[in-house]
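pinned: reference chain
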Amino acid sequence: DVVPEEFKDYIDVQLLKKTRDYTLEQSRFGFIESIFGNVLVLVFFFGGLLNMYNSWIVSFNMPFVLSGVVFFLALSYANTIISIPFDLYSTFKIENKYGFNTMTWKLWTSDFIKSIILSTILIGITTSGALYLMKASPDFWWFFVWLFFLLFSIFMMYISPYVIEPLFNKFTPIENEEIENSIRDLMKKVGIKISRVFQIDASKRSTHTNAYFTGIGKVKRIVLYDTLLKKMEKSEILSVLAHEAGHWKKKHVLKMIIVVEAMSLIGIYISFMMIKSGILISIFSIQNDTVFASLLILGFIGGIVSFPLTPIFSYFSRRHEREADRFGAEMTENREAMATSLIKLSKDNLSNLHPHPLYASFYYSHPPVVQRIREIREQQ
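pinned: its C-alpha cells
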C-alpha cells in the first residue's frame, strides 16, 4: 500500500505500516473473539445447556418476575466473566502496543465494578418491568412492553449525561474561553441551543480523540475529549462539531430511532405470536416451558435474522455521514479545516486508510476516510 495523496503531509510509510498492523491485529483478535463467542452460543442453545439452565432456574420455585430477573442477570454475569480476558488483552496488550492505552489496572477494576453494578440495576429494571407487563396483560403485552422500552430509552437518554456518564469521567467546563465562544457562535449560526460546553478527562483511559452532543429536545450539551483539544486547531474542532450539528439539523438521529422502534414493534409482535404458539419450546426441546427460555431463543434468532440488514443500515448511515460532512463544511465555510480534522482523527486513531470495498460497503457506518476527504474538497 502507498500513502494516499491526502495524507502525504501527515504520515509516512512507517506510520502507514503501523496503521495497517493495528488494523490487522484488531481484526484478527476480533475474529478470534467472535468465533469463540459464537461457538459458546451454539453449544449453549444446541448442546442441551439452555434446557439444563432453564430447569435449574425453575427448580428454585421463585415468583415469576424474580425468576426472570435471576435468569437474565446470571447470564449477563456469565457473559461478563467470559469477556474479561478478551477485554484485558485488547486494552493492555493491543492498545498498549500501539500507544493508545493510558488506563491503569486500578482504573480498569473500578470501571469493571461500576459497570457490573450499573448493568445489574438496568437489567433488573427492564426485565422486571417487561415481565410484569407480560403477566398483567397476556394478550397485549407486546405493545405495552414495546412502549415501556421506548419510554425507558428516552428516560435513559435524558439522565445519562447527568447520572451515568459522570460515573466514568470527570466533566469540567472547557478551559479555553476562546474556543468556547467560537463554539457558541457556530451553534447560534446553525440554530442549535447549547447549555454547556464540557471537556472530559478521556486521556486517563486512552489517547483516542472524540467529541459528541448530548441532550433531548432543542437544548444540547457539547462534550469534547481533552485529547481532541490538545491535538486539533480551533478551526478543526469547530469542523468536528459542525459535522455533529449536521446530524441533529438533518434529524438523522430521530430518523434512525423511528426506523429502529418500528422494527422493534414488529419484532416484539412476532415474538408474542411465537411464544403464544409454543413452537420455540418444542423446536429446542425445552422440558420446562418458561417465557424466559422463549425470550432468549428469540434473541438468538433475532440476531441471525437481522444480520442481513447490516449493509442496509450501513448504507443509510454512510449517507447520513456525507450529509453531515456537507452541512459542516457549509456552516464553517472552511472545507480544508473539515478535511484536516478528518486527517488528524484518522492519524491519531490509526484508522484503516485502505479498507476492502466489499467489507466497507457491508460494515462501515462511515465512508472510508480518504473518500470522505476527497468529497469534502470537491464540494461545490
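why pinned: The CA atoms of residues 280 and 294 lie 6 Å apart. The mean pLDDT is 93.
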